[in-house]
Amino acid sequence: MVSIFYISAIIAILASFKVITGTTLYSALLYLVIALLASASIFYSLGAYFSTVLEVILFVGIATILFISIRSYLDLGSPKFKQQEKGNLAPKFWLGPLILVFVLFVTLLYSIASTDYSLLINDKSSINSMSLEAVLLGPYILILELAALLILGTIIVTYHFINDITLTKDSLSGKPNKATVNKPAKK
Amino acid sequence: MIPLMHSLMLASALFIIGLLGVMIRRNLLFVLLSIMIMMNGAIVAFIAADHHWQQLDGQIMSLLAIITTLAQACVGLALLLQFYHRRKTLNIDLLSEMKG
């Protein structure tokens, strides 16, 4: 567990540094995914399994997909987009992320191999008396409701921000409408 | 048992890297990515405290922090779409119309 923590910490710091010094968004997003996966394995080595699952599902699964979709929405009209996609397959683009992710993979294999499975069969101590679900649905239920209200507020705010864009611009074809192409954007 | 000091050093290193990214990058997308790294460092600090005192409060606060980060990413990306729609650029220095 200790070695998993330190290896993942080094990977997280290296990948985070590559995120802020990245030149293209796609490479920065690749490194961001690696940094988030490395911090997920840090949480695993610290014993916070629920947060590991949340980090992988919410951060890696939702947030990075959101960034990729926004970026491709911005790029859709430009003819450079297809050329850029070809450039993304060059080895200098994926070699660095591949090395970092391979080290993470080796630590994952090590943690799977070093688990003592005979303890898991009759283990009652993993379901301890103060489990997370009992606390979360008991005294901390207001935190859950606060999170739900936060998501609701986010949906409403986001809808109002991008409402007029989706009304005036044909978002799928990427071509601006005739109504908006002649007059410059207001303000 | 990992000492609390090492976890907190990792958390502050991640936070400082994110802060550096916010300060040196002028592309709005990269600023949002750097804010995500900063929040990731804060969540690592929560989990480290959770591990050190063997309490569950840190995990619950990390749940709230993860959802807050997602919410700010959503609102930030919506603002970015508005900004790109009006200015056709992503440079946030162009936003300082008041020269403040």
Automatic annotation (TrEMBL), chain A:
Keyword Ligase: no
GO molecular function terms listed in the Swiss-Prot or TrEMBL record: NADH dehydrogenase (ubiquinone) activity; oxidoreductase activity; quinone binding
EC number: 7.1.1.-
A single cellular component GO annotation: plasma membrane
Subcellular location: Cell membrane
Catalyses which reaction(s): a quinone + NADH + 5 H(+)(in) = a quinol + NAD(+) + 4 H(+)(out)
Main location: membrane
Residues spanning the membrane: 28-46, 53-74, 94-113, 134-162
Function: NDH-1 shuttles electrons from NADH, via FMN and iron-sulfur (Fe-S) centers, to quinones in the respiratory chain. Couples the redox reaction to proton translocation (for every two electrons transferred, four hydrogen ions are translocated across the cytoplasmic membrane), and thus conserves the redox energy in a proton gradient.
Family as reported in the entry's similarity comment: Belongs to the complex I subunit 6 family.
Protein name: NADH-quinone oxidoreductase subunit J
Species annotation: Candidatus Schmidhempelia bombi str. Bimp
From TrEMBL, chain B:
GO MF, any single term: NADH dehydrogenase (quinone) (non-electrogenic) activity
Chief location category: membrane
Subcellular locations according to the entry: Cell membrane; Membrane
Substrates-to-products reaction catalysed: a quinone + NADH + 5 H(+)(in) = a quinol + NAD(+) + 4 H(+)(out)
Gene Ontology CC entries for this record: NADH dehydrogenase complex; plasma membrane
Enzyme Commission code: 7.1.1.-
Name of this chain's protein: NADH-quinone oxidoreductase subunit K
Source species: Candidatus Schmidhempelia bombi str. Bimp
